[in-house]
Specification:
CATH class of one domain in chain A: Mainly Alpha
Radius of gyration of chain A: 23 Å
GO molecular function (chain A): NADH dehydrogenase (ubiquinone) activity; quinone binding
Largest interface: A-B, 92 and 73 residues
Number of domains of chain B: 2
CATH architecture of one domain in chain A: Up-down Bundle
Strand content of chain B: under 5%
Shape of chain B: elongated
Number of strands of chain A: 0
CATH topology of the largest domain in chain B: Helix Hairpins
Distance between the termini of chain B: 60 Å
Number of helices of chain B: 4
Number of helices of chain A: 7
InterPro entries (chain A): NADH_UbQ/plastoQ_OxRdtase_su6, Nuo/plastoQ_OxRdtase_6_NuoJ
Shape of chain A: globular
Structural class of chain A: mainly alpha
Largest sheet of chain B: none
Structural class of chain B: mainly alpha
Helix content of chain A: over 70%
CATH class of the largest domain in chain B: Mainly Alpha
Subcellular location (chain A): Cell membrane
CATH topology of one domain in chain A: Four Helix Bundle (Hemerythrin (Met), subunit A)
Membrane topology (chain A): Multi-pass membrane protein
CATH superfamily of one domain in chain A: NADH-ubiquinone/plastoquinone oxidoreductase chain 6, subunit NuoJ
Radius of gyration of chain B: 21 Å
Oligomer: heterodimer
Helix content of chain B: over 70%
Strand content of chain A: under 5%
Largest sheet of chain A: none
Family (chain A): Belongs to the complex I subunit 6 family.
Chain lengths: 190, 135
């Protein structure tokens, strides 16, 4: 009877000092993601910032996989790593960003920015840890984020926002084309 | 898994994005930092969806919507940055002061209003040329 009670207790209240493999992997990948994000916002080589952004976004995709959200993870890989970073690299090259170190990558108010970010980090981490100190995610049982479940809910409960988003994507596409179109008629600027 | 792990990671990523938005000078690097902040919100949405075991899967649906909106935002933002670079020859957001208030008499030195006026003139003419070209 005693081991049964102990087993039930550990099942309901996992200890702080007995992390599972998923937790260890999550923390390690999280540290790598955070380090890549910090390098993204601090490196002085602009192209390297985009490449570190790839590492950070890929790490986040691994975190989604660890949280059993497989469809979100692959969408993250496809859209962010596949297209957004490529767009950013094209933007860097079309604006003739310097390839080497650029000493003026940071503006003059970086110490104010550091203060604001540090204060926000301390406040947010304190509040979050205080609020969710005794909360555990149950990763066992039915998997929450399979592609089947996501697709079913997306096309059963979220159809109208989904279609509205496709209209928004079309509007963004048209807007980007209109913005970046050169006007050849009349007096050509170049 | 402890819920504090993804929540703390999301908070730290968001604050990294805040630092990047405030401290970077190149507009494209600012867009990268905005992407970091959006991804931190996505991680929170997924973690809380898995924690609550939502039957509507609202967290994952909203994550997909956020990713889509972020893709639209990065496309439009890059188009605007390229347009600004074509008109002004620079994508440094510190130098784009055509719409800024001139520095007050008490705050800035004597060099600041002069520099602001120098920046304003080509910006106004470029804007006029652009308006004529589109018309």
């Amino acid at each position: 009877m005693n081991p049964g009670i102990a087993l039930a207790a550990t099942a309901h209240h996992p200890g702080f000092l007995s992390p599972t493999g998923v937790e260890i992997t999550f923390v390690l990948v999280g540290l790598a993601t955070l380090g890549a994000a910090l390098l993204t916002v601090t490196t002085r080589q602009l192209v390297h910032a985009a490449l570190w952004l790839v590492v950070a976004l890929g790490g986040l995709a691994v975190e989604y996989l660890l949280l059993t959200a497989e469809f979100i993870a692959w969408v993250q890989v496809l859209i962010y790593v596949g297209s957004v970073v490529v767009l950013l690299l094209f933007g860097l090259m079309l604006t003739r960003a310097p390839i080497g170190r650029s000493p003026d990558a940071d503006s003059g108010n970086r110490w104010v920015a550091l203060g604001v970010a540090g204060a926000a980090a301390v406040t947010l981490v304190w509040v979050v840890v205080d609020a969710f100190r005794a909360t555990w995610i149950n990763l066992h049982g039915a998997v929450q984020g399979t592609s089947r479940a996501t697709g079913t809910s997306l096309f059963r409960h979220w159809v109208l926002p989904f279609e509205a988003l496709s209209v928004l994507l079309l509007a963004a596409l048209v807007g980007a084309i209109v913005l970046s179109r050169r006007d050849d008629g009349g007096r050509g600027s170049e | 898994m402890h819920l504090a792990y993804p929540a703390v990671l999301a908070a730290l990523l968001f604050c990294t994005g805040i630092y990047g938005v405030l401290a970077r000078r190149n507009a494209i690097l600012v867009l990268m930092s905005v992407e970091l902040m959006l991804n931190a919100v996505n991680l929170n949405l997924v973690a809380f969806d898995v924690w609550l075991r939502d039957t509507l899967h609202a967290g994952q649906a909203l994550t997909l919507f956020t990713i889509t909106i972020a893709a639209a935002e990065i496309g439009l933002g890059l188009a605007i940055v390229l347009l600004v670079y074509r008109n002004r020859g620079s994508s440094d957001i510190d130098r784009l002061t055509a719409l800024a208030d001139p520095a007050g008499p008490g705050t800035g030195g004597p060099a600041d209003p002069g520099a602001g006026a120098d920046q304003d003139e080509p910006g106004a003419t470029a804007g006029d040329e652009k308006a004529e070209a589109t018309a």
